Amino acid sequence: MTYQNALNNFKMAQHHRKIWGRKIARPLKINQKRLLEEELPSLQLHVDFGKTLNLKELMPGFEGYTLEIGFGGGEHLAWRAQQSPAQAFIGCEPFITGVAGLLGYIEDAELENVRVVIDDARVLLQSLPDAVLDRIFILFPDPWHKKRHHKRRIVSDETIADLSRVLKVGGELVMATDIQDYADWMQDVLSKCPEFLPDQHGRESVYQRPEHWYITRYEQKGINAGRQASYLAYKKQSF
Ligand SMILES: C[S@@+](CC[C@H](N)C(=O)[O-])C[C@H]1O[C@@H](n2cnc3c(N)ncnc32)[C@H](O)[C@@H]1O
């Protein structure tokens, strides 16, 4: 697939799905285009409505499967993948410049355990089989501040059923945000799901950055601007 095809596919996805926001930050550099043309075809997983994405067939032989939704520039996903080569990592991100960023990390570190989905995470979630994932990261998702845009939030009463379904029992949903209203919203959504138990208890502890954590560009921007982040981790129980 050429870079232009990747872009056209994204535009189609944006039209038919629920993706808002930018797809490219600025014109792609030569190396970003090369990565999209040369590296993407063997690393991209395609999803579509009504089709099951059989991860275990597509990425066989791994000890477990981790998904990052909205990986931005890909630095966190690549860091995790490098730390745990026996685990498979799937990143979902519609932002083409970010995808090129991830491909750069994959190439530099010669990572064999990462695949990428350029699409709306809602379509990916609907495509995944039950109980396939060990962990889902949703770090600093777009907050959609205006009330009339809240329905665009990726953590919502609508998406939580799929987030739960695709996680194994004992699997983890890890979220972070530096928007207080979204942190409250996430806790409210999760409080309605008895199968999810918070890993940390008490309102105060959510402000403590977990150990073994990678600070992404977005998180760093928030820190520089003096924003306080909340870190929310929930374990799925059998229910
Ligand atoms: C604020 S950025 C955070 C990026 C990254 N997680 C970080 O911490 O640096 C939110 C990301 O979510 C992506 N995103 C937005 N809507 C999405 C959707 N429907 N499915 C998957 N990713 C989405 C955006 O393109 C963007 O890269």
From TrEMBL:
PROSITE patterns: SAM_MT_TRMB (PS51625). It comes from the Bacteria. It is an enzyme of class 2 (transferase). One of its GO terms (cellular component) is tRNA methyltransferase complex. InterPro entries: SAM-dependent_MTases_sf, tRNA_(Gua-N-7)_MeTrfase_Trmb, tRNA_methyltr_TrmB_bact. SUPFAM superfamilies: S-adenosyl-L-methionine-dependent methyltransferases. One of its GO terms (molecular function) is tRNA (guanine(46)-N7)-methyltransferase activity. S-adenosyl-L-methionine binds at E68, E93, D120, D142. Its EC number is 2.1.1.33. Pfam families: Methyltransf_4. Substrate binds at K146, D178, T216, R217, Y218, E219. Pathway: tRNA modification; N(7)-methylguanine-tRNA biosynthesis. NCBIfam families: tRNA (guanosine(46)-N7)-methyltransferase TrmB. Catalyzes the formation of N(7)-methylguanine at position 46 (m7G46) in tRNA. Belongs to the class I-like SAM-binding methyltransferase superfamily. TrmB family. This is tRNA (guanine-N(7)-)-methyltransferase. It comes from Candidatus Odyssella acanthamoebae. The gene is trmB.
